[in-house]
Amino acid sequence: MKIAISYPPIINERGQTAMVSQNRNVQFFVTPTYLLPVVHAQAATWLRDLGHDVLWDDGNAQVKSFDRWYADVLEWAPDMIVFESTTPVMKFYWNLTNRLKQDLPDCIAVMTGYHSMRKPEETMQESATDIVMRSNHIDFVLSKLVPYMTDHADWRSSCDLEGLHIRVNNGEVRNTGNFKQVEPLDRSPDVDRNLVGWKNYAYENGNFLQTPGTYATSVIRDCTFGKCTFCRYNGPDLTFSIRSVEKSLDEYQRLIEEEGVREIFDDSGVWYRGQEARQFAQGLIDRGLHKKGCYFGLNTRFAYLDEETIRIMGEANFRFILLGLEACDDETLQRLNKGYTVGDVARNLEWFTRYGMHPHLTVMVGYYWQTSEQLQGTVDTVRELMFKGLARTLQVTICTPIDYTPYHQECLDGDVLLTDDYDDFDMSEVIVKTPIPHEAYYKAVRSMYGVVFHPRFILRQLLFLLSFRKRDWQFLFSYGWRALRRVRNHIFNLTSAGSSKSPPKPGSVSPQPDPVGAAH
Amino acid sequence: MNHKVIGIRDLTASTYVLQLERNGVAFKAGQCISLGVKDHGLNREYSTYSGEHETDFEFLIKEVAGGTVSCALRCVRPGDEVTFSGPFGSFVLDAPQDLSRRYLFIGTGTGIAPFRSYVRSHPDIDWQILHGVRTLEERYDHQDYDPERYTACVSSETGGDYHGRVTTYLRENPVDPDTICYLCGNSAMLTEVFDILREQGVSGNGLFTEAFF
Ligand SMILES: Cc1cc2nc3c(=O)[nH]c(=O)nc-3n(C[C@H](O)[C@H](O)[C@H](O)COP(=O)(O)OP(=O)(O)OC[C@H]3O[C@@H](n4cnc5c(N)ncnc54)[C@H](O)[C@@H]3O)c2cc1C
Ligand code: SF4
Fold first, then answer.
1. pLDDT for residue B163 is more than 90
2. Which residue range is the domain that position A306 belongs to?
3. What pLDDT is stored for residue A28 in this prediction?
4. Where are the alpha helices (DSSP H) in A467-515?
């Protein structure tokens, strides 16, 4: 079978591109940022290993215009095309699928991703999609579904693999039941780097302090915690699964020794903790991989990694640590089910910085209950953490309900959403009713980003860099550059928020994501 | 939020029950709470072990060799406070008011914790527990369960209800496909049991899992 795993370029009328990939809240940015969708890359590898003709078709990373991308797809004429959905690009995908099904009627259109997973009926109704996959384990499902299709001409009516909505020939939709993924993650292959053109993703990514960088095959699928209300990794059908430490270490070794990778980021919702975290970091040291000039980075959460584990990670050359600091008041953290308190934050950051790591904070504002005191508390605490050198970089976003997460559902139930147009869910503006004017949240975002221009912060960064080895001076530039780029992007987004927004349409526009994950 | 420790009840050399004040916190049986030692800056999730209507909270905790939080919590004393966030999670009974359902709860080690919470909260439901442990002493609080409904699969010692692992037991004693199955414990057990139950015809709609690690 000819299978395209496709990420069409989605560019809005402001010339910004959106990138859709797991664990990302779509944002439109002018600056190119290419993130490897790891699970889909594993799916592509697995299908190729099964003998299928797989096209890794990321129009963003391959720097194509929409028209060029579309023409290439038509020319290649896949038997199956796989897309990844999330709320702000749903209308784009529905339009695109309809157009594609007219031009390639025999191509089976498969919609994956967290939005359609939660609302499969909607995508079946709004578009000519053939299959909605109610699973984030698309590698496991496709590896069974595709062979079934090739063996059974009547697959639409006979396939009983769970977790699918299938359009049957008479237009009816078959629901094959709830999906439950409980299979060892080790059964899914490591990403084939050549197949996905890893170098396309190796340079333009804010998570990399050095290049070429790459994303590891994630050690955890979903999230070990998985309780935060605004996060996609939350639901009764999601159970985290974990890759074996040795298998992951083997991949790191190959990436460093065979591909010459200088930075590896693991994009798992939350990386290993406890024993596995220590074994992994110690494994890097035992294999001598900590001395190869390669840095390691990951997403984690507060109150998860203990000091001894962090010490070993420092020795193993971990650097970029992405932590979600969703708010700095305990009421909000509790309402979001974050499972940590403000009191945990400074202590954890002290450990990371003590052992040479670079905490990057992902902060959010704009919850429908957020008062000016709560907002100011976040601004003050974040600025203080940056001034003290307890965090090195930050990203501030507007909390936008998406993908029918519990927070999204809460907003719907509480009637606080100001729009039901999915195009408005792109994080460029506050779309919920709030106790204070929306402008206050935008001002808070600017105030937090503004810290990077403050002499106190600049002095702190310089002192920090002076305490390091000489080559770490590069961070001064990468920090400064990244910080300025973010500030520029965000200020651009916020100042043009709400101005002449129109949905991206296939053939006219296309969406691009934020360089780092939304929050953890 | 902090909760006061009422006591620690040792069950084995490595496993204990931590008893905390309830402080009016409502929860659904099977949810978990993030607990930690005050001012340590760390926490871990623990499933509720006590019932929804009980005065205090109870948690069944195994002290993991080299572990951080599970070991630190064992050293707390009555009157100390521990950090407490939650309840969280959706590993709860779907429709406990529907008494026509038959439940099979399969847990290994401390994975029995949410099931004790289920049966203490909903004493009228029709349940069976299959508890996988290595030794007889790991049949934590087994006297609390109706022996007709509790089967201990003890892998390293004889004298339990079944000598062997839960997976072998399940292969020898197939499950009625209409049974609603809840699985809790380590991921390796979950995947193996999940496969066995699917082969025996249990639908994905009737299977619920909670991985501890
Ligand atoms: C939703 C959820 C509910 C949980 N409920 C319970 C519970 O009710 N009782 C309980 O004892 N634990 C429970 N756990 C596990 C608990 O959260 C911690 O992982 C465990 O106490 C170890 O923490 P630590 O800081 O001591 O060890 P760490 O230093 O974090 O080491 C963690 C390692 O210990 C091992 N481990 C973790 N839990 C266990 C266990 N129960 N038995 C044997 N080995 C283990 C694993 O290898 C794990 O990677 C639960 C986990 C989750 C995700
Ligand atoms: S926000 Fe982070 S910690 Fe919370 S569920 Fe999502 S990935 Fe896990």
1. yes
2. 202-495
3. 73
4. 473-495
